[in-house]
Amino acid sequence: MSEILELLTLISRLLHAENVLILCHKNPDGDTVGSSAALYHALKGLGKTAALLCSDPIPARYAYMQIELYTGQFEPGYVVAVDVAGIQLFGDGARPYSDRVDLCIDHHGSNSGYADAMYLDASAAATAEIIYQLLEAMQVPITPVIADCLYTGISTDTGCFLYNNTTAHTHKVAAALMEAGARVGELNALLFESKSKGRIAIERTALENLEYYFDEQCALIYMTREQIAASGVSAAELEGVTGLPRKIEGVRVGVTLRQQPGGSYKVSIRTVKGVDACAIAKRLGGGGHEQAAGCELEGNLDNAKAAVLAEVEKELARCAQGAKEEE
Questions:
Q1: pLDDT tens for each residue of 201-216
Q2: CB neighbours of 107 closer than 8 A, spacing ≥ 6?
Q3: pLDDT in tens, 263-322
C-alpha cells in the first residue's frame, strides 16, 4: 500500500523530483487533464523538465491548456499519477510506467493505493482543488493558463457546481481562479453549452435505449460500439452522456453502459444523495464517489446489465431498510 504523505512532504518530493512524467487516466476528463496540466505548468515554472502521458488522445477542446505530451523526449526520473484511482485506469499506452508510479495525487476515496506514495483528499470536489492547494503552499504563481486548467477540473467534476460534491470551499477556489484570470464565461460556454452533432446523435440513441427498473427508481441507457461509431461522437464528449438517466424525475440511480472498442462495457453510475454509487461499483471491481462511480465489465450486454442491476437492487434494498428502521 501507498505511503500517505502530508502536504509538506508532498512539496518536498516534488521540489526534489527531476524529469517528471505526469500520467492521466484513460478516457481523459476535465479533472485529470486540467489537474495534470496545472501541475505541468507549475513544474515548468520551477525550471523542471515535465510532460504528460495519457493512453487516449487528449480532447482537442482542451488545447487552451498548452500541454506538452510525452513522446520519449526524456527518461522519466519521477512518475506522478493525477486523478487516477486504480492501476487499471491507466490503459495500454501508459502501461510501461503504471507499475512504477512514485506518487499519486487524487481525491477518490476508493483509491487502491497502487503508487509508492499518495496524497489523497477525499473531501475535495475535484483533484484540481488539491492541486490548487498544493500550488498555493508551494508559492507558485497561479497564471491565467494554470487558472484555466484548474477551473476546468473543478467545474467539470462538479457539473458546473450543480453536484452535491460542491462545497463552500469549492466556490472559494473557483473565485480565486477567476481573480487569477480564469476565463470563466468562455470556458463554461465551451464545456457546458456547446455540443457537436455527434454528441446530439449519441444522446438520441442513448435515450432510444432507455430502460427502467425497480419501480422506475433506476434508469439505464446503453450504447454499443457500433452506435457510438455511427454517431461520430468523440470519446471526450461521451463522458457527458453519463448524467442523462439520473436527470429523469423520480430516478434515484442512473446507469450508463458504454461498449468499449475491445467489447467490454464501461459502466457509469450516478445516484441521488443517500444512495451509494461507490458501493455498487466496488462490488463490481470499480470505485469512485458516493454519488458518481464506475467500473468496467466483460461479457455481452445482457450479462453486463444483469450484473450491475443486481447490485443496484441490493443498494436500493439497503436504502429502503434504512428508511424503515428510522421510522
A1: 999 999 999 999 999 9
A2: 83, 120, 121, 122, 123, 124, 125, 126, 127, 129, 130
A3: 999 999 999 999 999 999 999 999 888 999 999 999 999 999 999 999 999 999 999 887
Alpha-carbon span 217 to 110, nearest angstrom: 25
DSSP state of 57: P
Q: Tell me the pTM.
A: 0.86
Q: Cell numbers of 124, please?
A: 475535495
Q: How many CB atoms sit inside 10 A of residue 149's CB?
A: 31
What is the rounded radius of gyration, in angstroms, for the C-alpha atoms of the chain?
A: 20
Question: DSSP label at 315?
Answer: H
Nearest to 129 by CA among 80, 82, 193: 82
Q: What is the 3 state secondary structure string of 202-247?
A: HHHHHHHCCEEECCCCEEEEEECHHHHHHHCCCHHHHHHHHHCHHH
| Per-residue DSSP letter, 64 | G
3-state secondary structure of 43: helix
Other CB atoms within 10 A of residue 282 CB: 16
Closest CA to 56 of 23, 86, 18, 82: 23
Closest to 37 measured CA to CA, from 68, 75, 72: 68
Bridge partners of residue 20, in order along the sequence? 50, 78
The Cα 299–Cα 184 span in angstroms is 42
Spell out where 67-172 has E strands. 78-82, 103-106, 117-120
